[in-house]
Specification:
Layout lengths: L1 H21 L4 H5 L2 E6 L9 H8 L2 H4 L2 E6 L7 H7 L4 E5 H9 L4 E6 L6 E5 L16 E4 L4 H12 L8 E4 L5 H4 L5 E5 L3 H11 L5 E3 L11 E6 H6 L1 H19 L4 H11 L5 H15 L10 E2 H13 L9 H5 L5 E2 L11 H8 L25 H6 L3
Parallel strand pairs: 1-2, 1-3, 6-7
Antiparallel strand pairs: 3-10, 4-10, 5-8, 5-9, 11-12
């Protein structure tokens, strides 16, 4: 009887140990992981593939971090959560960062995820041929009043001296019906997200789409970047460095064509409503937006593009005046290497050594030339969607 009890107790103890190890025993558990929270700007989809990949495939853990990734959304403000201490890292668009800085928020940009802005306008080239900016005249253009797309489109029209009465704005909602009914000629979309979905739907009906990209015409408005606080950067520089290196490694692996299957499966875990074939095309489009050329360093900060974004916001009176965007980026000019931004608290000697290091330069090059906004044929629709404009 006693022997049976001892066996049962031993079995329970063994099961307990096995359960503990399944939850993370071994070298990582012994060392302990540092908990941090990462608030995204939007919902889980292909646009955050690198973030999710770094978590699911243990890259954060390899760097000694236990990262809680939280979805964003219209009711979520990553910068506010950083200020309140509810998160240590976040994703925000450049205009959000600049607005916050104009109000005195101690925010620091440590990486720029998208080198080309995915916010573009989908259109039907067969019915609305667009070869130059001036082809926009007489067209009905969808904009979200108060949104980035309105800011970008107004900047484009101002740059080329196109008057308001030369075009017609249509107030955009989440319902794409006006575009499907052809009541609107150009509709704002995130090219690597809903742009792919709409193109797929229209393609099944034999329709071809194109994407009008303001960046191809010289309007550079920075999209999503990774942010933290000045306090965290000063107080825990090693945490910022570990997080940044792990995150960029996650993006590097997720966008590597050799890891496409794993990356697609990772996204699908969190975005089950989107078909695999759509996710695959979204991933290809995202790859080009994040890394437009082989020389592009993932996460590199395009200081000139940030400065232009700031100027656009001042011109449109979205902020009262210049905030000195370079101080937010912790870099003087050109393109900042993201890993150099985490060493602001190092010694003068270290900084001198770092300043001598040659960083790879990332230019915000349009994926295609301005002329490439013309559409492909129906049979080449997949290729066009894989190479966003």
């Amino acid at each position: 009887m006693k022997a049976g009890i001892h066996i049962a107790i031993s079995l329970l103890a063994a099961l307990a140990v096995m359960a503990f190890c399944a939850g993370g025993c071994g070298k990582k558990a012994e060392k302990g992981l540092e908990d941090v929270t990462f608030r995204l700007k939007w919902l889980f989809n292909t646009s955050v593939v690198g973030d999710l990949y770094a978590d699911v495939h243990g890259i954060f853990a390899d760097y000694g971090l236990q990262v809680t990734i939280k979805e964003g959304g219209p009711e979520r403000d990553a910068i506010k959560e950083l200020e309140l201490g509810h998160a240590q890292f976040g994703v925000a668009s450049a205009d959000q960062v600049i607005r916050a800085a104009s109000k005195g928020a101690p925010i620091v940009v440590i990486a720029q995820l998208f080198q080309a802005n995915p916010l573009q306008w989908i259109y039907r080239p067969a019915k609305t041929p667009i070869h130059t900016v001036y082809d926009l005249k007489g067209k009905t253009i969808g904009v979200t009043y108060g949104g980035n797309d309105e800011t970008i489109m107004k900047a484009l029209l101002t740059k080329y001296e196109i008057k308001k009465n030369d075009i017609k704005f249509f107030s955009v909602r989440y319902d794409y019906t006006p575009f499907y009914r052809e009541d609107v000629d150009l509709w704002p979309v995130y090219q690597n997200a809903e742009g792919i979905i709409i193109a797929d739907k229209l393609g099944k009906g034999g329709e071809v789409v194109g994407f009008f990209n303001p960046d191809a015409f010289g309007v550079r408005f920075v999209a999503n970047s990774v942010v933290t606080t000045e306090h965290l950067l000063r107080a825990r520089p090693e945490t910022v460095e570990k997080f940044l290196r792990a995150l960029l490694e996650g993006w590097q692996q997720a966008l590597d064509p050799a890891n496409e299957k794993k990356a697609v499966e990772t996204i699908h875990q969190f975005d089950k409503d989107t078909p695999i074939h759509i996710i695959r095309r979204q991933l290809t489009a995202t790859r080009v937006l994040v890394k437009p050329s082989p020389e592009t360093e993932i996460g590199a900060i395009d200081v000139k593009a940030w400065a232009e974004t700031e100027r656009i916001m001042v011109t449109q009176k979205l902020i009262p005046g210049l905030v000195g965007v370079e101080r937010i980026l912790r870099s003087g000019s050109g393109t900042a290497s993201p890993t150099s931004l985490v060493n602001q608290g190092s010694s003068d000697e270290d900084q001198t050594a770092q300043s001598g290091m040659k960083c790879r330069i990332c230019s915000l090059t349009s994926v295609n030339s301005a002329a490439s906004i013309s559409a492909s044929t129906s049979s080449a629709s997949n290729q066009q969607m894989d190479r966003p404009l």
